[in-house]
Amino acid sequence: MTTTDPAGQAEPEDTEARTPPSGPALSANTFIGPTALQVGTGNTMNVSYRITRPLPLDAAADELAAAVGLRWEKEAGLRRLLEPAPLPVRWQVSDRKLAGRIGAGTAEGARARFPPLPGLAAATREDLRRGGGLRELHALYGGLASGRLLLVGPPAAGKTAAAVLLLLDALRYRANAAPESRSRIPVPVMLSPHGWDPGADSPADWAAERLAREYTLFRGRDGRARALELLGSGRIALFIDGLDEVAGRLRGAMVSALETADFRLVLVSRAKEAVLTARRARLGGGVAVALQPVRPDDAAAYLLGPLPRTPPPAWRHLTRELLEQPGGVVARALSGPLAIALLRDVYDDTGPVDELLDTGRFPTPRAIEDHLLDHAVAAAYTARPGRPRPRHSPETAERALRHIAARLTEQGTRDLSWWHIPSWTDHRPRAAALGTIVGVLYAALGIAVLWQLTDPLWAVMYGTACGIAGGVVAGRAGARPDGTQPLPSAGWRDIFNPSTVRIGIHHWFWTGTVVWLVFWPRDEPIPLWLCYLSTVPVGFSATLVCGRGYELVAGTFIGVGSGSWFDNVREHHSSPPVADTRSIGPWDVWLHHVRLRMLLGLIVGVAAALLVGPIAVWVHGFPGGLASGLLAGVWTALLAGPVGNLGVATALTAVQLAAREGTPVRLMSFLEDARRRNLLRTTGPVYQFRHARLQERLSRPAQDPEPEPGTRPVRPPPDA
User: Under DSSP, is residue 363 helix (H, G, I), strand (E, B) or coil?
Assistant: First the structure.
């Protein structure tokens, strides 16, 4: 392309003026332009560009959306919600008295509390009457004037699965929106109400604390403040799943507190518990929608989807029964996503699935569901093409899960808190083993060190005495019953936050100065550099005592002050827990205890050796001082490392359970594997059985085993 000057001469266009300036790509920016302005006689072109940088909160919301999407895409894959295509989600407005009037939710003729999301229309009464599927559910979520949606249904109705699919749809809708509209579309975040005390924390404070624990974006006080800003500005919408698992009075208090929340809400609950909650407290402006049973034609299409074009006869018989007898036993049993998913897990493509048509063996829908639940564990741990090879046999897995289910049912809970596992066995064998190991190590070290300093007989006597004393103390320390909930993370930033580090430096400087002044009048005063070197552990221990690492030094001689006197200091200077990973679950917390807290325990031992050794060497000479520092360091490292470590106690308990109950030795690894196989799930820092009915079924006393699927096949009906 060329331009013409006033003299009529053709000249090439100034392409450099039309090309945007080069440089690094700007992510999540808004570009407006180019704008061309031709001035003068037509031979000059000025091009202006305007680049609008995203606001800090918008950038934080975008980063949070990416983290949430990554987490729940993975979770949806574990639940097999995306592949094959999920069962259709259908809903209708609940006819039960679960919330206020519908008019309060749609705010027709009144001022809406939340405007519709960009690109969506305001929800109306007619929309609610029609009901619909997942697409209409998202439109209701984004167009409801009250911003309060209750998703209810009977047990095993697929409530959590529907909430996960809705969350992923909301994330995709936000990602596809125009940049100028994206800031007005909140990021959906799913949380569990586990651990929330509505009498102590407002909904925003509680949500900000949970976000700080689960996402690195919100680490530290600044991160928590950023989370509060996102919540207060409506850039986050909360999906709260598991409200029905909270005690009645506490559940009512939570619902009452959520009425004042400044962000959109989606509450997921069983219908029965929602009705009981509504008698105490109703969510103002909330609209309750109930998930509908799976239609027989949808169930048949889902079951036949992964099969060849010409399905095996057994599957044709079953699906024909579904379609021809929509009110029959099989159709009623397969009216929920749980039973349908279990059916695909228990029976492979060539399995005798038509044995479920035997009304003698399976007279009721409950009998079919029990049959599927009884074989769920074996199906999950049976090797199949395209799936990871199981690490445990079906018999071992079922034995372990039965023991766990019985324990939880006996305690009246669904939460498997791994730090409570040490209470499942007698602590005395564990304490004896730990004391013996520590005693032998300490005695051997004491004899080896003292052998060079004194008579061999005295070395053996003193070393043995040290070993016995150390073993007794370690055994008593390791025999403590299960502790309280551990830190959500034992990360470096949790323990060495700037506030506690400043306290440690202050203590180190003044302690070193005082030690030098005390020894200065001697004939041979200790050098100032040695005083500061030997008092470094004082600053280190002060950092731990005043922060979240106080448990590491409690009970050791460098942990003086780690009792209740320092509680107020610790509360003031400890920052909110920080996660070293994108999301924190039970496995992550256990690994933090076993790995990082063990390493910190060794560092505490080094600090003790450094506290005692240098001055002892200066006063008593090299051999004696070195021996004193080495013995003090090893002893402290053992106490601060493995002896008081909840992760180690859990691992030792797993060995006891394996010897007594036949459960896997690596119990925590087994629990994580069971989660990946869709038998367990995580709720915050605890495990739960994926379905309450599965825990109920496994907790029953062992009876005569039911025949494996297909061992007593029923004669199939004639093929059509």
Answer: coil
Residue 265, SS3? strand
Q: Establish if 396 belongs to a structural domain.
A: no
Q: By C-alpha distance, which of 580, 233, 628, 270 is closest to 466? A: 628
% of the chain exceeding 90 in pLDDT: 30
pLDDT of 582: 41
pLDDT of the residue at 117: 95
- Residue closest to 590 by CA, chosen among 657, 668, 656, 679: 668
List the end-to-end C-alpha distance of the chain, in Å, as a whole number. Answer: 72
What's the rounded Cα separation, in Å, for the pair 530 and 32? 64
Distances (CA, A) of 466 to 460, 609, 613, 676: 10, 17, 18, 47
pLDDT tens-digit readout, 485-511? 444 444 555 567 677 778 778 877 888
Does 670 map to a domain?
no
Per residue in 74-133, pLDDT tens? 888 877 787 777 788 999 998 877 776 776 778 776 677 899 999 999 999 888 989 999
Looking at residue 191, the DSSP 8-state letter turns out to be E
Return d(Cα 174, Cα 56) in angstroms, integer. Answer: 18
Which residues have a Cβ under 8 Å from the Cβ of 277 and sit 6 or more positions away?
Answer: 243, 248, 251, 252, 255, 269
Q: How confident is the model at residue 461 (pLDDT cuts 50, 70, 90)?
A: confident
Q: How many domains does the chain have?
A: 4
Residues 208 and 86 in one domain: yes
Does residue 251 share a domain with residue 234?
yes
Name the amino acid, one letter, at 631.
Answer: L
Over residues 653-687, the pLDDT tens digits come to: 999 999 999 999 999 999 999 998 889 988 767 88
Residue 154 has pLDDT above 60, yes or no: yes
- Residue identified by tokens 């066995």 is 425
Residue whose entry in the numeric block shows the structure tokens 């409570």: 420
* Domain assignment of residue 691, yes or no: no
Q: Helix, strand, coil % (nearest 5) of the chain?
A: 55, 10, 35
- Phi–psi pair at 487, nearest 5 degrees: -60, 140
Interval 427-449 mean pLDDT: 82
Please confirm whether the linkage preceding 84 is cis (ω < 30° from 0). yes
